[in-house]
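so i finally got all the pieces together for this one. its three components total, 1169 residues if u count the protein bits. some of the lines might not be protein, just check the labels. i wanna see the whole assembly predicted at once instead of chain by chain like last time, that was a mess tbh
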Amino acid sequence: MAMDEEDGAPVLRMRGIGKRFPGVVALQEVDLALYPGQVTALVGENGAGKSTLVKILCGVYQPDSGEIELAGETVRLNSAEQAMQLGVSVIHQETVLFDELSVTENIFLGQQMRNRLGMLDWPTMKKRAVAILQDLEADIDPDAKLRDLGIAQKHLVAIARALSVDSRIVVMDEPTAALSWKEIEELYAIVEKLKSEGKAILFISHKFEEIIRIADNYTVFRDGVVAGSGQVADTTQDALIALMVGRKVDQIFPKQMVEIGETVLEVRGLSHPTEFADISFTVRRGEILGFYGLVGAGRSELMQALFGVTRFSTGEVVLDGAPVTLKSPSDAVKRGIVYVPEERQRQGAVLPLPIFQNITLPSLGRLSRNGLLELAQEFDLARQYAARLELKAASLSHPVNTLSGGNQQKVVIAKWLATEPRVIILDEPTKGIDVGSKAAVHGFMSELARQGLSVIMVSSEIPEILGMSDRIAVMREGRIVDTAPRQEADAESLIRMAIGATQEAGVDAA
Amino acid sequence: MMAKALKNRDLLLGLVLIALVLAIAARFPGYITPTNLEGIFTDTSILIILALGQMLVILTRCIDLSVASNLALTGMIVAMVNAGAPDLPLAALVLLSALIGLGLGSINGVLVWTLGIPPIVVTLGTLAVYRGVIFVVSDGEWVNAHEMSEVFLNTPRILFLGLPILAWVAILFVLIVAVFLRWTRTGRAFLAVGGNPTAAVYAGLDVGRTQFLAFSISGLLSGICGYLWVSRYAVAYVDVARGFELEVVAACVIGGVSIAGGIGTVTGVVLGALFLGAVKNALPVIGISPFWQLAISGTVIIVAVVINARQEKTAGKLILRDSHRTH
Amino acid sequence: MTMLYDATRFAVPDRLETGWKPRLLRWETLLLAVAAAIFTFNALSSPYFLDPWSLSDATFNFTEKATIALAMALLIIAAEIDLSVASIIALCSVAMGAAAEAGAGTGVLVLIGLGVGALAGAFNGALVTGFGLPSIVVTIGTLSLFRGLAYVVLGDGVYKNYPDSFAFFGQGYVWWVLSFEFVLFLALAVVFGVVLHKTSFGRWIYAIGNNPTAARFSGIRVERVKFLLFVLSGLMAGLASVMLTSRVGSTRPSIAFGWELEIVTMVVLGGVSILGGSGSIPGVVIAAFVMGLVTFGLGLLNVPGIVMSIVIGVMLISVIALPILWRRLQGN
């Protein structure tokens, strides 16, 4: 959709931007132009350099080479403050705001208004905050502490913050990642509004449907360089994926047919006071049970209860026909229930420790003789599982934080496989990992099922859910609203159940 | 309404303090006379000033364990200068104490800011170093009351509107810090930097610089307290105020300052210090040995931190619709 | 399980020459060099230094602290800290003193010392793990509380009616110049070294110190491990109290005042990261010797104790600052 300004001057032009860190070239000869009243989508895999570019735009990093032109003038963005003053505002991926401060203060922090005495002018700030929030149609008390708001409301505060300064450029770094379907729609409306006000928007996203829907232009990053750019109207999803990956991806979800055996895990009427209720399901030998739902539907909370991280209040978990108590993760591990968490770096791996120590961490008991660890056996075990997962690393003694996201995930999975579990729970197993590792993880999941493990997979990606699962459970607001074999599921019905649109149509929970 | 009031920590602490004072007064009416209450406040003045500085440091996720050593060293130096040159005007000595304190505080700040050494290590180190330096400068000698000038000793005791200057100095600093924290950009930066350092960087705040500033202010206040302490107790020696840093941290913790940074109010800190002062003052009144003081402070710190932790605990995500009603 | 993949195709070598271990070892080598330098300096500056008995005497001024430092090292690696250890010494000493007044024998006294120490440690551990409180605040509180209790019991009094046989723990010799204290410390150092570096428990400590959440999600009972470490720290403080009380022969509530600082310095000097997650027992042991040698050397030069605190304070800051500065200089 070419606009009149298309041929006009861009409000921001970056030329030949380069940035290197010790041992890594993050960006190389990157060009990017943003036009007033247009949305430019920035696409790329994790580690392609998107966040580095955002940090340069908001003044947190300084580029090693290249120049930035704002409205025709060459500028240097030496600090976040300066970037803000020049009219660049950024809405960050994780809402980087202040929980203990009020909504008003969060909107203005760093740019607070002052009266003639040089003191902060709270009344004026509050008035402006109310006006901005009204403009966003956000029903938020400007005096509320941020910690008392929900995720979506926090996001609106972040947007309000970006709009508080008269910005010409708004950068949105994966703004929809943590939002529900309804909230995403509201966000799109805000994007449209910003466009109509003539602001240039840089929209960073992983979701292609989203890009096709709201963006005018696109730029694709791959390994720190621009792999391609153009108008969204002239391209397709497949073309974008091809640019992003650098090769054709033909089969991302290789689900093999596996003979399904007897019931291994049975969950009966599991409830938690605030997070989930009446959860019942079974998983059988060789089966992959997919859990679909919106972010915040209670899936991770449920899985963490099965793993003993949080306690459930009523209900029981039966493993191989016998009820089990799960008071802590170590109980779960002893019973053969293991959990690959969504937050890999925080909950999954101990990043500064060597790879082999991460892999053997839950299996140390088996590797000790007379109470002392047998290093040779430890390396044997680590080597075996590293090979099985096709881990790419220079040495097993290297810390996990030297690995890519995908390989870190492989270490976490290897850690659990080394305990020879019965049930493996994978929470968003391919979130934020590169396409190559993604395929490897998918392949490995069906391999596990084939060997007789019971796999529970939580995923918010419809293609992944439909491609991998034997049966699909859909959760909404802490309850399972439907469980169906894959053959009976399709993308549209899954989404409708997840957002609750089916209730009026009379389709009830299974 | 009641529940909401109880959630206001400062109010709660204020009520507890009043209840404590009334409970003691119920059996020992002498405790609640204006003279005694004024005495409690004056006795607590130095603790209040130090706790204000400490709060700023803790707000930025640091801790300053060197305050008592700073106080003692500064106090020793000004006492020696006063003894050596009795004609030097008091204003010059106060300025000197402020500058020495500021200097010692900035050393902490620089080490934390530029080298990124954990604050607890830095200030444990300077705690020892500053204390040792007192011995070096004084050669282990005492400076006694008769060596100090009249003005040096008596100025903080002069009554103004019924309160000694010492108490007014504390009140002045309370007001300054309160205004600073609420009405200036730099003041708000202290809360922001401690609350979420990452976000602070994105908001254009310099985390290290703010921490440096906090240590400098804490040092400045410690230095001024050095003079106030030495003149109040009319003596300077190596072991002055030894271990007092713990009481200062205690006042902050009792006052609801979160050791994790970003949370704390001036009111809370003042109440926390007054609480300790009220307890200390009550012991001889009730007839309990002063040896109980330390154990009571310890218990109060532990109780306060348990209560703080309960209040800071965040609820789950409350995914179930019904759960919203019960909470 | 069967091997499904060609192991050679994805073979990852076990070790490379770079990594965390060699770097740590280098820190220990550096410390050793420092120790040797101070040793030589002392030997040159005082004719009394090289006498075996004089060296043996020198060990007394650090073995008690170093014994606690072993447990403190584990705690700090697990990203916790115990600032109340010196107060635990006082509490244990008062308890033993009171028992001795009541006529308790040596065996009972030792049990009381160790028992009170372990209980005090358990109290810290329960507060930290049970309520999820930051250990630095908790142990600043118990630092006050434990020593406060000692003052409550003893006031400005003193206990000194210890049985004669009790003197062995702080004054006795196992063989020739080797004191009981010193031999016990060396034995404990070996035990702690093995536990930290050769057992699952040691691995758990590192995992917890680096990432407590991931450790918990890996099936480690994080709270239990931390609790045990606090008990261990209290127990070692109790043991140090037995040795110190026995050596001094009397108890005052101010006993071991300010030792927590020297103990933490020892641990940090030994290369343990104050932020948790890394460090080694050999490093801490060498650091104990370095500090002992410095104190002894300064003593030989008639430097008063309070001035030594300057040296210790400067050492604490500079051992952390110097590597950072060094890296900066190399970086430019």
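DSSP finds 13 helices and two strands in chain C.
The interface with chain A takes residues 1, 3-7, 9-16, 19-21, 194, 198-200, 203-204, 206-207, 210-211, 213-221, 277-278 of chain C (CB under 8 Å).
anyway lmk what u think
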